[in-house]
């Protein structure tokens, strides 16, 4: 019987160093076994047993006999990124309407879109994001991110600062690139700078200057933390690749909806606070992400239509 710890070990190792040919073959066979899973699926023990049995048929016996002593953190998991650079084939034309003096652009779930602004700036919207910008934008360069995540490449203009507002914060820049994540369901917002610098303000004591590769995390209690960011991983979502570090399952549920279009329901609310780190590509089916979560979180899942139900005793 194939030891599940072996797969955990390979997933962890693959994030840190190249796998041997035998290890790569074993992990690839495991991924292939997941491709056989049906679209509507539960994850009970019999199915789990069947999955491992199918996998054994693809792997050389000598690969299965290795004794493993590699510890795996219960909060770390990775998914192999397959293929070459992502082609922007999941874009959609902006659904723009005008409400009073603000133009509204909404990006559907499971899509991404690029919005070209009148001043030459560019804004990428992640799935489910909602952007509003002033009809007089060419004069004042103001916009609002009322929901979701967006990456901004701001055209330099010293005479007209570019201002992005969320429900809690204002970001003021002259010319730079930065990422804003502001989901209503979560109790925090995050601003990450890729190049240049920005000024982040709230209605109270928050007045922070962020430079390249720095970010601020701001919560509902008006507390904030400034820290070093993860570099190019910050906006990798624009290419369909996701590096999610120390995120709760509650936040992951939002991500799965924006990436795959599935609504996630927690049958056991305690699961929401379980923390994981994941690395995966949207080219991989959602079942692979769920199988990886199941390996470390004692989570069982069921997929029906476009809804995922998670159950478990917690982390």
TrEMBL record:
InterPro entries: FecR, FecR_C, Ferrdict_sens_TM. It comes from the Bacteria. Residues 242-310 form the Protein FecR C-terminal domain. Residues 105-198 form the FecR protein domain. GO terms for molecular function: sigma factor antagonist activity. PANTHER family: PERIPLASMIC SIGNAL SENSOR AND SIGMA FACTOR ACTIVATOR FECR-RELATED (PTHR30273), PROTEIN FECR (PTHR30273:SF2). This is DUF4974 domain-containing protein. It comes from Chitinophaga lutea. The lineage of its organism: Bacteria, Pseudomonadati, Bacteroidota, Chitinophagia, Chitinophagales.
């Amino acid at each position: 019987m194939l030891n599940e710890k072996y797969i955990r070990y390979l997933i962890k190792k693959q994030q840190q160093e190249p796998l041997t040919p035998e290890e790569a073959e074993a992990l690839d066979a495991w991924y292939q076994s997941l491709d056989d899973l049906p679209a509507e699926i539960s994850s009970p023990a019999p199915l789990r047993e069947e999955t491992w049995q199918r996998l054994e048929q693809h792997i050389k016996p000598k690969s299965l006999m290795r004794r493993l002593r590699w510890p795996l953190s219960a909060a770390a998991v990775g998914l192999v990124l397959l293929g070459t650079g992502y082609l922007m084939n999941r874009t959609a034309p902006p659904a723009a309407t005008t409400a009073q003096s603000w133009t509204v652009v909404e990006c559907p779930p499971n899509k991404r879109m690029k919005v070209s602004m009148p001043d030459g700036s560019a804004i990428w919207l992640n799935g489910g994001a909602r952007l509003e910008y002033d009809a007089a934008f060419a004069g004042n360069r103001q916009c609002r991110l009322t929901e979701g995540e967006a990456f901004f490449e701001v055209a330099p203009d010293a005479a007209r600062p570019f201002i992005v507002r969320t429900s809690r914060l204002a970001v003021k820049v002259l010319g730079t690139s930065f990422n804003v994540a502001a989901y209503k369901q979560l109790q925090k917002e995050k601003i990450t700078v890729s190049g240049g610098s920005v000024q982040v303000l709230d209605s109270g004591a928050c007045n922070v200057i962020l430079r390249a590769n720095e970010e601020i995390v701001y919560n509902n209690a008006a507390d904030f933390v400034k820290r070093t960011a993860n570099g190019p991983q910050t906006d990798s979502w624009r290419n369909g690749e996701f590096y999610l570090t120390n995120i709760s399952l509650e936040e992951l549920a939002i991500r799965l909806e924006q990436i795959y279009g599935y609504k996630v329901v927690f049958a056991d609310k305690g699961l929401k606070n379980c923390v994981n780190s994941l690395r995966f590509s949207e080219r991989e089916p959602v079942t692979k992400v769920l199988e990886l979560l199941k390996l470390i979180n004692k989570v069982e899942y069921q997929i029906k239509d476009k809804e995922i139900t998670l159950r478990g005793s917690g982390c």
